[in-house]
Structure formats: structure tokens, C-alpha cells
Amino acid sequence: MEPIRIAVLVSGGGTNLQALIDAASRGELPHGRLSLVVSNVKGAYALARAEKAGIPALTLTKKACGGQAGFEKALQAELESRGIDMLVLAGFLSILSGDFAARWPRRIINIHPALIPSFCGKGFYGLKVHEEALKYGVKVTGATVHYVNEIPDGGEILLQKAVDVLPEDTPETLQRRVMEQAEWVLLPRAAELVAARLANEKESAT
Ligand code: GAR
Hints:
Layout: E1 4-10, H1 15-25, E2 32-39, H2 45-53, E3 57-59, H3 62-65, H4 68-81, E4 86-89, H5 98-103, E5 108-112, H6 127-136, E6 140-147, E7 157-164, H7 171-205
Helix pairs in contact: 1-2, 1-7, 6-7
Bound molecules: glycinamide ribonucleotide.
Residues 10, 12-16, 46, 90-91, 93, 111-113, 125-126, 129, 179, 183 line the site of glycinamide ribonucleotide.
């Protein structure tokens, strides 16, 4: 069975990308192959992680592509020319258009650092999500992996995991606990779930 070719989209440090790389090296992503990393931020540390793991990586910025439409056109061309089957948004802090998402139905997944439908949607990303959770005073938060559709953080939920909020938490300590206990566990698991489904669909279509 041909592995499903996965592109990982990143914007920052890439710890979720690292979780995917580590899971793959432990044999926990048997239906997928990490085939491309795309950063929309120049010099993102995630690019160094890709290079170290021997995964082809490139940077595409909205600025260099002349805006969102140009960015998505360039991205689509790269994905097609490299035979990519599915996308994983792993700390990709930009919103893809509904038109782009519609080209990849149930083929794009995203990790969000909260229990959707709490603390999600436009403007809720990175540390901001944890700042808002602490401000609200929730005692439990977590992470969600969902399919990407035209609604920001609005696609079908694949996996969720709850994480306790502790009284002494800062946004930074909470972010770290959510990553360790939820994100790095859920994302590789969800990537394998989708890759296995796509591999089976591919097999039954031939
Ligand atoms: C992660 O916490 C991820 O869930 C979040 O950004 C961080 C990226 O960290 N994503 C979002 O907020 C998306 N709305 P990483 O670059 O170390 O994986």
C-alpha cells in the first residue's frame, strides 16, 4: 500500500511537527509519509526541525506571493506537483480561505489548543487562547484536532483531550501542559486516522 503523502503547515517553533516526526520514527504513522513542510513565516524554527529530519521544506509568505490568493495559489501548485494527499496544520497561525479548504475536503486537519467550541475562531491562536482560558477562569481546558472547512475552527471534530488548569498557572505553563498532555499525543494519532482512511479509499478505488 502506497503511503499517504502528508504536507505539514507551520508558522513557528514546530513542536507539533516534532511530535509527528517522532511518532513516524516510532512507527506510529504507518499509513502516512511526512513529505513536505511549508512555513508561512521566514526562519521559523520548524524549518530547522524539518531539515534535521530530512523532510523537504519551503517558505511561502503572503507578502512574497502578493496576498492571500497568491499564497494559496502557490501552495496549491507545490502540493499538486509533489503529489500531496493530505495537510496537517501544526501551529499554522494563518486562516486558509473557504475556497482553498473546499479543494481538500476531509483532507486538512488542524490542532487547536482548547476544547472547541471554547476559545476558538478568528483571533484565538497560540498563547492568546490560554490567556483567555485563564481570564475566564475555566478549570479544565485541552486540545482539539478537527477537519478544516470554511469556518475557522468550525470543521468536524476528530479527537479531543482535556487538561486540568492549575491555580498557579500562567499562560505559558498552561500552554506547555496542554502541549505535553494533549497536543503532542492527539496530532500524530489524528494524522494516522486520516491517512489510514485515505489509504483505504485509494485502495478500494483501484
Ligand atoms: C500550538 O499550541 C498549536 O496548538 C497552536 O499554536 C501552537 C504552535 O506551537 N495553534 C493554534 O493556536 C491554531 N489556532 P508549535 O509551533 O510548537 O507546534
